[in-house]
User: Fold these one by one.
Assistant:
Number 1:
Amino acid sequence: MTQSSPNPTTLLRQCLKLAQEVSTHPQANEEFSQLREGIAATNPQAAELMDILWQEVIAARRSAEFWHEMSNVEKDLSNRMMENMAQLRQNYLRLMQEM
């Protein structure tokens, strides 16, 4: 039996799925390169367009990951500030009771 090459649409979906996580970007890029080579053989202009779109996908995912991390840092900072405020309030109430 001969093994047929996967459908380009299926390959692109696999690449996009891998691109969802920054940690799998190297594998996603490798699979995308293989997909691109197959398309470039028949349609060089389509391959160029795919390159542009792929770079945008990767940049968008990295940006989303960055802002997600920033959001987590901001959340942690907010939580610590609230804890500090509660502690200060308790300290103030204790000080007032001692007077």
Number 2:
Amino acid sequence: MAQVEIEIGGRRHELTCRDGEEDRLRLLGRLVDAKIGDVSRAIGKASEARELLLTALLLADELDEARNAAAKGRIEEAQRITAMERCAEKLESIAMRLEKPGENA
């Protein structure tokens, strides 16, 4: 296990993570620290607990929006595939009619 030190809201925290995950944990720490900085600037003086709560809610909101966007993208992709399949079926039908002798005269 690896030890990582991150700083969030001006406080240093020692965390343990799996070997090789140190950079990822540092990145996540920087993201949380930036978001808590945004919250602190927006609401002014507040308790650390309140800042952390609002930061967690903002991050949860961003995650929810990202999940919804991903789901919408999957739905749109499925609709495009369905439309392409219908087009392919129509093309196959047309091709079959054109291939039948004596019917295209």
Number 3:
Amino acid sequence: MWVRSKTVMVMSSVLFTAGCAASAITPSGREAARDAERAAAIAALAAPGQNVASARLLPQDNCYWYEHTGPVETTLLPLVNVDGQPICLQSKT
């Protein structure tokens, strides 16, 4: 009897905790449109041969980086324009 009630308590707590897990946050329509416009602008600036779909803005340098999948590992590389210059946002200061 003790094992059964202990099992029920553990299962209940697991289910309760799973229900409290953070759900995915979806952007509003305005934010999604702005993100789509930004992604299109970045894709237009980027030189060919880069995985623009994986591009992300890193706060350390305010520049975009993309995932390059090589034969051994996947590495973040700076996203560059056709002139070889990194694509970065201007600082707010």
